[in-house]
Amino acid sequence: MESTATAPPTTTHTSNTDNHPHHHILPETSVLVAAVITVIVVLLVAISIIIALLRRVKSRKPNNDNDNDNNNHCLFVPHSIVTFNGTKGRRLCMNGGSPCRLEPSATFKGVQVFTYKELQSATDGFTEANLVGTGGFGNVYRGMLRDGTVSAVKMVRREGKQGERAFRSEVDLLSRLHCPYLVDLLGYCADNQHRLLVFEYMANGTLHDHLHLHDSRSQMLNWGIRLRIALDCARALEFLHEHTTPSVIHRDFKSTNILLDENFRGKVSDFGLAKIGSDKLNGMISTRVLGTTGYLAPEYASTGKLTTKSDVYSYGVVLLELLTRRIPIDTSRPPGEHVLVSWALPRLTNRVAVEEMVDPNLRGQFSRKDLIQVAAIAAMCVQTEADYRPLMTDVVQSLIPLVHNLSVGSSSGSFRFSKRVSPRS
């Protein structure tokens, strides 16, 4: 009986305790649900933004060329890469896949875009009277631009994909490389099938012509001028190899690609075969063997392994040309003298032999000490083992005192260096 009588209050008490907290749980649950929903919405928005950014970054990447010779390691500003098509007008690739049409004579980072008609007018119809150079790349004409600037207009021959790649490479590199020892690119034309490059005009043509044409021009290059040209070219390669990230390998450094201005200062030209090195030591990359016989480094010619030291070897060959006035490969000479490097190398370390191998036009213009130093630089540059070749910075530092010593006094011949050292010294 007692058990039955106490049961109802117990039940009633339990019911009251259940109802009391129920009023507090509902608002807390609502807040929790709202917070969860808010977090989910924020996460969804964040994910959407991340996906959009990833798509945008992906769209900015330049299209890869399937050809192995195309460079995929270029870390220069992406929006300055130039693309061309065969339609009317010129396009400059900006921000990856969003090309922007440029009007005739418009400028982009200092490089002008010309129509074919503009350059045809500048060169008087590409007449023979304005022809200043010829080569495997095409003809070069002297031109007068509308603003009165004298220029050199190079008409690029398009022979397959290599010609188009060389044209694009030269425009892309030179529009971003600015150095007083490189020939300035003023503009280009990619109008329909026409491919033309417009450079600053170099009044004294190529170093090759002055050294190897059988006329009086070689006599104009006395010892002082040749040393100054050697220093200018060394500074150009130093800039490409050691002041550009990643390094630029010219790959076709030779006397025909060294141009001389009105003061016989040297500038390096023709970057159609240039490559961007990797971030590894010396920028080693594997590529097809392209270049000019007689200037190719042995390891590059045999394996296709290209480094900045390949350019150093080519520089050494040019330095031998400046010393001897011999071409790199000359089958008209007696046996044993066909290849300039193999003939000269054992003589470069012999004080008597090195004087005998010097260009006769230079006799009496130099001190024996200076000649021995230049010969030693050349010998180091053309070493068979790439690791034994110097950096171009070392070459520059070795040549500077020789050139400055000549600039303090006067060199023999008609050329006199100014005592005032220019910024390019």
Short description:
This protein has helices spanning 2-60, 116-122, 160-174, 207-212, 223-242, 298-303, 308-324, 340-344, 351-356, 368-381, 392-408; strands at 90-94, 98-102, 107-108, 111-113, 131-133, 138-144, 150-156, 185-189, 196-200, 248-249, 258-260, 266-268, 275-276, 285-286, 305-306. With 425 residues, the protein is an alpha+beta fold.
What is the topological layout?
Layout: H1 2-60, E1 90-94, E2 98-102, E3 107-108, E4 111-113, H2 116-122, E5 131-133, E6 138-144, E7 150-156, H3 160-174, E8 185-189, E9 196-200, H4 207-212, H5 223-242, E10 248-249, E11 258-260, E12 266-268, E13 275-276, E14 285-286, H6 298-303, E15 305-306, H7 308-324, H8 340-344, H9 351-356, H10 368-381, H11 392-408
Parallel strand pairs: 4-8
Antiparallel strand pairs: 1-2, 3-4, 5-6, 6-7, 7-9, 8-9, 10-13, 11-12, 14-15
Helix pairs in contact: 5-7, 5-11, 7-10, 10-11
Largest beta sheet: what is the strand line-up? 3-4-8-9-7-6-5
| Uncertain residue segments | 1-23, 57-108, 410-425
Helix content: 40-55%
Largest sheet: 7 strands, mixed
CATH topology of the largest domain: Transferase(Phosphotransferase), domain 1
Number of E-type strands: 15
Q: Tell me the fraction of residues in β-strands, as a range.
A: 5-15%
Average pLDDT taken over every residue: 78
Tell me, what is the CATH class of the largest domain?
Answer: Mainly Alpha
Counted by DSSP, the helix tally is 11
How far apart lie the N and C ends?
A: 120 Å
* Outline type: globular
Radius of gyration: 34 Å
CATH superfamily of the largest domain: Transferase(Phosphotransferase) domain 1
How does CATH name the architecture of the largest domain? Orthogonal Bundle
